[in-house]
Amino acid sequence: MATARRTTAARALLYLARTQARNRWRWRLRRLRQPRYLLGGVAALAYLGWVSWGASAGRATSRPAALVTWALPLTVALHWIGRPNPLALAFSPAEVHFLFAAPVTRRTLIHARLLGQQAASLLLIVVWVALFDPVTTLAGVVPRALGAWVLVTAVTLHRTGAALSLIEIPDAPRRLPIARTVAIAWCCALAGAVVYGWRSLGPLLTDEWGPLLATAWRLRDIAELPLPRAILTPVRWLGAPALATQPLAALAALPLALAVLAALYAWVVRDPRPFEEAAADATRRYAERIAAVRRGAFRRPRAAEGGTGRTSRIPLPRGGPAALAFAWKSVVATARAHSPRNLALFAGALAVGAWVMPLISPDPVDAAMIRAAFVASGFAAAFIALPGWFRQDLRAELGHLVFLKTAPIPSRDIVAAQTATAALLAWFALVLVFAVPLSLVAMGDSLLGFRATLLLLAEALVVALPVLVLLHFTVHNAFAIVFPGWARVGQAGAGGLQAMGQAYLTLAAVLLALALLLALPVGAGALAALAVDGALALAVAIPVAALVAIVEWWLLCAWLGRQLERVEPDALIATSR
Amino acid sequence: MTDAAPPPTLALSGVTKRYGSVTAIDALDLTVAAGEVLGLVGPNGAGKTTTLRAIAGIVRPSAGRIAIAGVDLATHPVDAKRRLAFIPDEPHLFDYLTVREHCRFVARLYDVADAEPRIDALLDELELGAKRDALPGELSRGMKQKLAVACALLHDPALLVLDEPLTGLDPVAIRRMKGLVRALAARGTAVILSSHLLTLVEELCDRVLLLRSGRPVAIGSLAELGALRPEFAGRSLEDVFIALVGEDATER
To answer: What is the least distance, in Å, from the CA of B208 to any CA of chain A?
Structure first.
């Protein structure tokens, strides 16, 4: 009876997985009939090919063995130390609807969860193969792809098992924390072995590599010492097939890796606690978080205390233009959607990175160059990605187009208020995050000297950057209004390679448009610099360029306002599918 | 010697659900017989959804016992759940299963014999026949709700648990849904439904359970509720609800 029940449930789950996968691929292939998805697909494939080719051309002979060797224990420690992550138990809302009230065992629910995670694992495996096994034979790829699958599945299983062990389950008896004790004891033993190994290898030599790289090489050497090697045995077994350089070696290493995986699996499904309620709650919270991120909010709105509404500390001025209300709304929404803690963490990580990265090289000049390159690349990446994170502007309002179109305010003013507020907030965040790293770069500048570099940086941050961010945000909003089908790729159901390629194409078009828009201000700034010449050239050029850019922005707002009046709400819905 | 009476389709005894210091359901006793339709009403936060989710086995009671057709939900969850169907207020469907595939999946899950003709009949009955190959993204809110109903009825449950069943349905679908609930009850299915639409509850339900802050305020048929106080005689459920639960509670 119980066996028949298990078979029925297993067949149902396999039917679900198989049919969903087939339909997903069919749907994604069918939508290639639309040019935007076809172009997106081509762009994504070209990008993956380029990454694969790049990896192939510059591939090192050894795989990232040291990284895997130390990343896995770190993952174990993170899963067991501190608070459990209930989101590890999040199912899809449809799984909760159909499976939780169905006549299936808890073990079957865990199987459903693990099966559902295989799609995400597949993506990771494709990335692994693209990076480490590009353009090779199928026989060469399969064993290592299997190895990558073992590695990814082991991490997933471990995360689920840790969450099941640690999660607080209402009204369920507490269990002895045996698994947690074992895991933490293992981590402590490993930490002790690392300290012992470090000391036994003598002082760190930083003449050739710099402290950072020397530490990395030291950790690699420690992993080969007898005691750490013995403690790391399960990690080595798990990683061996994925890290093998030869397909036959990968095949030979598979049985041991599968044995560790089987042990993990047996532990996870052995006797699940009644986790349904916690899982249903985690599912709801995860769905809310995803919805919030799609709206551009990076934290879930917290429930108001005692059911009363929360009052914003940011006052709405009584007087002034009506469009000010839009600006106020964006500020309030941003304050609720973004956590200052996340911003502080990001700023802290960057500052630490700017301090640590130069330790790669023992040469001070090289170190300064490395720091400048690190900060510059981080700044460029943050500047490009900022409108994707910070979406409390017109793009967030396009879903309420009916309201926007009926508001008794000129559309130009709405566009201007929304883009200016978002840009100002984003600029403020950018300055906060990069103030320390940029100061560190200025300190190391031997060309102009610390004071001159700092002054120039301050002028660029205060005068040029806000205008640059403003134009960047306005171009993103312009794309959302004029080409909603291209810009709104974050919608549910729009995933896949084609959507990824579409996002890249959109980003490229936005950056091109931004570059074109900047041509005139840069030209004006250059002329001003030529007119002044000498030490003050740059100091004069920046405000002139900023002024011309603001005039451009205002004209752009007027044009976008007219476009906004022409957009039909139904058209936005249709093109976002 | 007489045969023992069959157990009620749903029996709750002393069911309590606490979230920290908040008591969502407080020592609830309840039985629903085969063929009976019970309406669950109460202001927001009264514990209706928690009660339904506890009956569906999604929420675990802090105390008390729930039995479905005599089978204890805590000790024999799989056997108990085989006898029930739960339709939440918001139908969550699989993005990449068509209408018919949803039904096939559920049929496999519940091991429904000879499922195909039953699926076709149910889809036709719920006017989803023309949409059988559509994905959820191509369905309206009402159609999604109908699909959830079709999936729930496939295995012929002894107990149907409905949370706000009419949300998003058009007038024709509402009438059809009401007819369906009546027909199911006539066939012997016990139905428990929660709704804020008191006229619907009045029209459909044999008995009504009024909840407030997790506690049962009153239970009985409309006539029995009318007999609770002299001023209730001949009054509508809405009047009784306002009088018993209080206008202040609905505003919380």
So the answer is: 24
